[in-house]
Specification:
single chain; alpha+beta; Rossmann fold; Tumour Suppressor Smad4; 2 domains; 6-stranded antiparallel β-sheet; 8 helices; globular; binds adenosine-5'-triphosphate
């Protein structure tokens, strides 16, 4: 028998709408005990997953984030440039990175997928030297991330309700994008900085994005008349968003963005940055379990 791998599950008990509540018995039922020696730890507060990973990564071959993109962000960014591999059991509201990596949305299946997993190295993106994995954003989606964070409930429905309410109040902003070879000034509703192809929930904001191509894509969305919203939504969920005249894509490995507002999100988590934002790619800097 080959040597057992040491695997740590870090569970965010408040992620999504509670799919993770039977996680201990599901791991016991479906994880191959001949292959893995497993440990399970629950987070007690935001930021806890980061602390656990910083202390524990030398002791494990694989650390699995059981949560949404926020938990994946905490675990994954703490594993950059280490030998330890990031696994994901998606139990969040959006699960963008897990969906890009074709990890099952059913917990039992996602655990079974660990038994015969494949790994690959993916790029991570530095935003003013701070890393993210999937997508970061400026403008309307950052504003929604801030409002979602303050909301008393979680889940997709809460997210949609906030998005609709805020849409009617939000004013598009002017941004300057400084690439190596050109500068673009643009007035946009939002700009997404995407390493993965989707936000989550199969909303493909950047259908051409690949996690290991050495590039990041900026997707700018111009203000649009409301009657276009259903068409844009159709395109978003069918990998056709780039065919809209309201959408512009830029592919780069380095850009400076000048933004009038400090509100941003990184992997869906609200953050504030000063108004000059430096974006760089950190190529193939994170080992992940992937079914792509
Ligand atoms: N025990 C805890 N109590 C409170 N907050 C926590 C705890 N553990 C983690 N968190 C925080 O919960 C937030 C949300 O977690 P996460 O993103 O995993 O779930 P989600 O928001 O439901 O999913 P998604 O990001 O896919 O929409 C993160 O900011 C994370 O740091």
């Amino acid at each position: 028998m080959s040597e057992q791998k040491k695997i740590l599950f870090i569970v965010n008990p408040i992620s999504g709408t509670g799919k993770q509540k039977n996680i201990v018995s599901l791991i016991d039922s479906y994880l191959d005990k001949n292959k893995f020696n497993s440990t399970i730890q629950f987070t007690a507060h935001a930021g806890h997953a980061k602390e656990i990973v910083k202390n524990e990564h030398p002791n494990f071959d694989i650390i699995v984030a059981v949560g949404g993109d926020g938990t994946v962000h905490e675990v994954g960014t703490s594993l950059i440039n280490t030998n330890c591999i990031l696994g994901i059991i998606p139990t969040g509201s959006g699960n963008g990175l897990a969906r890009h990596l074709k990890i099952s949305m059913k917990i039992a299946e996602a655990i079974k997928q660990l038994n015969n997993h494949k790994t690959k190295k993916i790029d991570t993106i530095l935003l003013n030297k701070q890393p993210f994995l999937g997508a970061a954003g400026l403008g309307f989606d950052a504003h929604v991330a801030w409002k979602f964070d303050e909301a008393p409930t979680r889940g997709l429905l809460t997210y949609l309700k906030i998005s609709v309410k805020e849409y009617f109040r939000y004013k598009p902003q002017e941004y300057k994008l400084i690439f190596k070879d050109k500068t673009v000034t643009t007035k946009d509703l939002l700009i997404t900085i995407s390493n993965s192809n989707q936000y989550g929930n199969n909303a493909f904001i950047s259908p051409n994005s690949e996690l290991d191509d050495g590039f990041v894509r900026l997707i700018g969305l111009k203000p649009f008349p409301l009657y276009i919203a259903p068409i844009l939504a159709y395109k978003l969920f069918n990998k056709k968003i780039l065919s809209s005249k309201y959408v512009t894509e830029y592919k780069t490995n380095q850009v400076e963005i000048q933004s009038p507002s400090p509100e941003m999100h990184m992997d869906g988590e609200p953050v504030k940055h000063h108004e000059i934002i430096q974006i760089e790619v950190n190529p193939k800097s994170l080992n992940v379990i992937s079914n792509e």
